[in-house]
Amino acid sequence: MLVADGNPTVRKILRHHFGSLGWETLEAKDGPEALKRARQRPAPHAIILDLELPEQNGYEVCRTLKSDDQSQMIPIIVTTSIASPESKMQALEVGADDFLTKPINRIELTLRLRSLLRIHKFNQELIGAESVAMALARAVAAKDGYAHSHLEKVATHAVMFGKALGLDSAELKVLKYGAILHNVGKIAIPDAVLEKTGPLTPREMAMFQQHPRVGCDICAPLKPLRPVLPIIRHHKEHWDGTGYPDGLRGEEIPLGAQIVGIVDVYTALTSDRPYRKAVPHAEAVASLRAQAKKGQHSPDLVRQFIECLEAADRSEDTGNSENSSDREVAVPAG
Q1: CA dihedral 105, 25, 224, 218 (to 10 degrees)
Q2: Number of H helices, E strands in the chain
Q3: What is the pTM of this model?
Q4: In 130-286, which ranges are E strands?
């Protein structure tokens, strides 16, 4: 813990209290020292920050730390002897995670710290899991013959479609990572199979169809990614039950997996591959409709996805037209 307070008695009391909990304590007597201590490595797990620090007050210290990528995730509890609504609002505006009035109740402080530390630990796990996942996903995209931009393209289309279907922010986040990670299991498929332009042998097809299971096995140990597992596992299921790996049909297939399955087909068709060029939008849409008729996708979802793409194109065309008009208006007369 970092205790940043201009009062040595407060620092001493909190040092002894944290010591009784088995927590190591760093101390800072003013703003510049607080910034220096907060930026050292390893970084403190949390900061108790007095708003009335000398030289550089707690508001400035908090704003600086929360604006820095290296320290913005460290939980900060600000303390003050001025218990006004204005000071609390100002502290929260500069990024404070919690607010306590002096004299500090040590039991309350401990409970709030434990809560913030649990959130901090989860956020650190999430950042770590996302970093690992993104690295794997980019490796698979390159292995599968896609440009790095392909992942962003899949995620963008999936989230756009999810918004059109009314998914909330939490569902959209899961959908985004599901779209990015859906093919991560291909890391275990030999390049010779992935790069093959002719028909796969029965053995090669069986190997290829294991990639959703393998993807789940890779991501399952990363706790923050567990909500994404149904998308990874089921994005190759078919509406008529002929897909893999579990032969789910109709509404048994999770909605996120259905969305990613449709988006995956569209973006694959409209992306360059080593063995072929991207097909035009109209051809990709016709292919999606044909697959829906054959039972691969929900016809209703395919229709809604195509409408979503067309609405996005109209919006882009309108924006370009407005920008062009703005430029024309801005040109001075001869």
Answers
A1: -160
A2: 14, 5
A3: 0.63
A4: none
Beta carbons within 8 Å of 142's beta carbon, 6+ residues apart: 148
98-101: strand order across its sheet: 26-28, 2-4, 47-50, 76-80, 98-101
CATH topology of domain 125-323: Hypothetical protein af1432 (1.10.3210)
Q: How far apart are CA 195 and CA 3, in angstroms?
A: 58
Tens digits of residue pLDDT in 134-174:
777 777 777 766 655 677 888 999 999 999 999 998 899 89
Mean pLDDT, rounded, of the chain: 87
Four-point Cα dihedral 87, 88, 90, 91, nearest 10? 110
CATH 3.40.50.2300 residue spans of the chain: 2-104
Residue 126 confidence (pLDDT): 65
The per-residue pLDDT for range 168-207, each reduced to its tens digit, is 988 998 999 999 999 989 888 888 888 787 889 999 999 9
Measured CA to CA, the distance from residue 275 to residue 79 in angstroms comes to: 63
Taking 70 as the threshold, does the pLDDT of residue 77 lie above it?
yes
Contact assessment for residue 179 and residue 263, using Cβ atoms and an 8 Å cutoff: yes
CATH code assigned to 2-104: 3.40.50.2300
Torsion of CA 156, 157, 159, 164, to 10 degrees: 140
Q: Annotate 243-276 with three-state secondary structure.
A: CCCCCCCHHHCCHHHHHHHHHHHHHHHCCCECCE
As beta bridge partners, residue 334 has none
Close Cβ partners of 20 (under 8 Å, ≥ 6 residues apart) = none
